[in-house]
Amino acid sequence: MYPQPTAAEEILARAAGKDRVSAGEYVVAQVDAMMMHDIFAADVLSMLERTGIKRLYDPDKVTVVFDHMVPPPSVSAAAHQAKARELVRHFGISAFFEIGRGICHQVMVEEGRVSPGQLVVATDSHTTTYGALGVASSGIGSSEMAYTLATGQLWFKVPESISIVLEGRFSYGVTAKDLILYLMKAVGSTEAQYRSVEFGGPGVGELDLADRMTVSNMGVEMGAKFAIFPAGFVQTNKEGANYAASHTVLLDSLAPQIAVPHHVENVVDVNEVVGTPLDQVFIGSCTNGRLEDLRQAASILRGRHIAKGVRLIVTPASAQVMEAAAREGIIEALTEAGAYVGGPGCGPCFGGHLGLLAPGERCLGTHNRNFRGRMGSADAEIYLGSPMTAAASALMGAIADPREVEGISAGRELAGVSASGSGGSGTGE
After folding, report:
1. Between 345 and which of 60, 70, 329, 351 could a Cys-Cys bridge form, CB atoms 3.0 to 4.6 Å apart?
2. pLDDT tens column, 29-74
3. Rounded to whole angstroms, how far apart are CA atoms 87 and 93?
4. Does 235 lie in the same domain as 346?
């Protein structure tokens, strides 16, 4: 009798037209959706043009989003985008989203460009984000994308899978960002390298869609090929499936986590670095720029002002998020607290523009990487934490535990933040 397939095996078997596949097997699979952003779109499409390819295999499966260098901060960036627009028209790609629409991974979900059970590739490492919707998704390089655009398929090595069983509930001040940072410490990138990290257990119900996107987004930082939650017909943590490893996480035992310079695996409990002075705080990115994240930050900052000498930069993940935040009064609360609220985009996260750090400066951000030189100077320091930790730290001018900032814990219900740390009923956006 065959073992139950893991989620990764089930999705890749369907995409490869097989009854079943096993870890370690190589398959050629049909890809359900492809995405490129402005950094790579012109190069990939130019590659096809130079080789004489007249049309894409299926233009309707292709999405292009301008989000990284937006608005273009240089003449070269503007020219690169102009070339991409020309090629998007040439190849008949109708799902094209201009500057201001939002960060690619948020847009793909909001626009329904990904669905449970699909196999999705994109020219961005954080394509693992779609695993929040039961999708096997991964970042690929430019040449692989060119091949996929031309043929509709790509080869994959079926990954082994790791089971992550979640139990319990988040305590106040602890969020999905703290969970994935904890996993970076507990599991790390060696064990999860080229494996499918699959989340299940009773605690999964505590994570809404925004939470799951945060966790799946940073799955790639663990080295994972996929980072999959159950959704639709896609089930995870199946009894009888072959898992290379299994870990159980008690959500109610977690404390706020901080990744310290200069690697995402360098994670400690927040109390180990409380009081570390900051020059800048950043809230945003494809990891934590969603409405729920901004809502959490506003719950701490509303009616208060950030500390003197610290900068707070906020970039919503999409135009839809920004509009909803404006309707709720979140944008007003943030700006009154002293925040600079920019348009949707990736700029500060990867050091493209907006919020670059000078030598010797220190930033706490809600994004996904704290590598040396990621946000500007190689002599700057980057710490990573949750939106709640970031907001509390901006308020204090130094890294702070959101559970300990005076007046916050007592006002939890008035702030509209649920025990899950996501607001609302936990049903997602």
Report:
1. 70
2. 999 999 999 889 999 999 999 999 989 999 999 999 999 888 988 9
3. 9
4. no
| Helix/strand/coil for 274 | coil
pLDDT in tens, 83-104: 999 999 999 999 999 999 999 9
**199 three-class SS:** strand
For residues 94 and 174, membership in a common domain is answered with no
Q: Spell 383-415 as b/e; 16+ CB within 10 A means b.
A: bbbbbbbbbbbbbbbbbbbbbebeebeeeeeeb
Q: Is 299 helix (H, G, I), strand (E, B) or coil?
A: helix
Max distance between CA atoms of the chain, in angstroms, equals 66
Per-residue tokens: 378: 């190689």
Residues 217 and 268 in one domain: no
Whole-angstrom distance, CA of residue 288 vs CA of residue 376: 20
Residue 193's alpha-carbon distances to 2, 140, 223, 244, 316, in angstroms, are 25, 15, 4, 12, 31
Whose CA is closest to 67, among 405, 302, 316, 249? 316
CB atoms within 10 A of CB 30: 17
- Can you tell me which residue has the tokens 């933040």? 417
Residue 81's domain comprises 31-157
Q: pTM for the complete prediction? A: 0.89
287 and 180 in contact (C-beta within 8 Å)? no
User: Which pLDDT value is given to residue 355?
Assistant: 84
